[in-house]
Amino acid sequence: MRKLILSQSFLSLSAAFLAVTFAAPALLAQDSTNFPTIGEVVRLDPEMDNLVPKGEKIEVLTSGFLWAEGPVWVPRKQHKYGGYVLFSDIPNNRVVRWDEGKGGKTWLKPSGYTGPGKYGGEPGCNGLLLDSEGRLVSCEHGDRRISVITKDGGKMTLVDNFEGKRLNSPNDACYHKNGDLYFTDPPYGLPERWDDPRRELDFCGVYRLSKDGELTLLTKEMTRPNGIAFSPDFKTLYVAQSDPEAAIWKSFPVKEDGTLGDGKLFYDATENFKKGLPGLPDGLKVDTHGHIWATGPGGVYVFAPDGKLLGRISTGEKTANCGWGNDGSTLYLTADMYLCRIKTTAKGAGWE
């Protein structure tokens, strides 16, 4: 176990900034009863019908983004299932908010790079999630850190280095039930990626940040770790690898002390990628019965807990990530320029 060298930065959001950012005009307001649809649901096993009923469509909620990522549902306290979606538009260095019946608008800009000038093609934040207090936690490419927006509107760094060396560009994260944060750190946010001279680590790691700020490197065996999620019982950690030569998902047993055992191949989609299906293994989520909903070549792969592929939600676009929303049964998808959704009969892990 390695002790974290933690640098804290606190970014004050002025009243003027809030007025500009949060009052931006809608990108695309749509009739909430008549969304356009794309793609199809590919059914490879009868169990798929029990998860996504026949006739369900992939709805396009809003569009016009350069690369949408990291959708997270933010509930409204006064409504049990009311809320809105936040998601990243990475190249445009912003977070977008989408509300039913209102469409999308810029919610936070800059989102992942706060320095001067231009910083590569993917400067914004990537994966988004809420902590136990309902605060927004984001994996920031340009600033190479994981941050949290505090209750008073400031932004605070949770982690930005390992043993004094700056992280590559945190990509995605998930919380253990005990409050520890697990995250991946590939090089996609660096302007020249793996060959960038600013890179300080010679590996792409999967880490755990404990509640008391201690950072542990769990594994560096994956070439491009990306999406990450726990099984419902927190005994298994699933990690996607977005490597064109090894487009795979791995599963790791979680030990009592929170570290990982030896990883095992969960599914290999390399052949599908090389056949021309768009996208690579990326973000993923799990439902209450342990099914894994994982973006990859050709859309969202739906796996049984034993790794059997049940079907695929095919958007026809490179699909980057997904997240549960509403009552926990609606799956929101970020697919290239689109924010989409599809209704399921599953329930996201952690939803009551």
Commentary on this structure:
The chain is mainly beta. The protein has one domain (10-343): TolB, C-terminal domain (Neuraminidase, 6 Propeller). Helix content is 5%, strand content 42%. It is built from three helices and 29 strands. The strands form seven sheets. Strands 1-12-11-10-9 form a five-stranded antiparallel sheet, with no helix packed on it. A five-stranded antiparallel sheet has the order 2-4-29-28-27, with no helix packed on it. Strand 11 (145-149) and strand 12 (155-159) form a beta hairpin. The chain is globular, with a radius of gyration of 19 Å. It starts with 9 loop residues before the first strand and ends in a 9-residue tail after the last strand. The model is unreliable at 1-29 (pLDDT under 50).
Average of pLDDT: 90
- The CATH H-level superfamily is TolB, C-terminal domain
State the total count of DSSP E strands. 29
Structural class comes to mainly beta
Helix percent reads: under 10%
Number of helices: 3
Detail the poorly predicted runs: 1-29
Question: What attributes does this structure have?
Answer:
single chain; 352 residues; 3 helices; globular
Brief characterization of the structure:
This protein has one domain (10-343): TolB, C-terminal domain (Neuraminidase). Helix content is 5%, strand content 42%.
Layout of helices and strands, plus pairs?
Layout lengths: L9 E2 L3 H8 L14 E2 L1 E4 L3 H5 L6 E6 L4 E8 L7 E7 L4 E6 L3 E6 L16 E6 L5 E5 L4 E5 L5 E5 L1 E2 L2 E2 L6 E3 L5 E5 L19 E5 L5 E5 L5 E6 L5 E8 L2 E8 L10 E5 L1 H5 L9 E3 L5 E5 L2 E5 L5 E6 L4 E7 L4 E6 L2 E6 L9
Antiparallel strand pairs: 1-12, 2-4, 3-26, 4-29, 5-6, 6-7, 7-8, 9-10, 10-11, 11-12, 13-14, 15-16, 16-17, 17-18, 19-20, 20-21, 21-22, 23-24, 24-25, 25-26, 27-28, 28-29
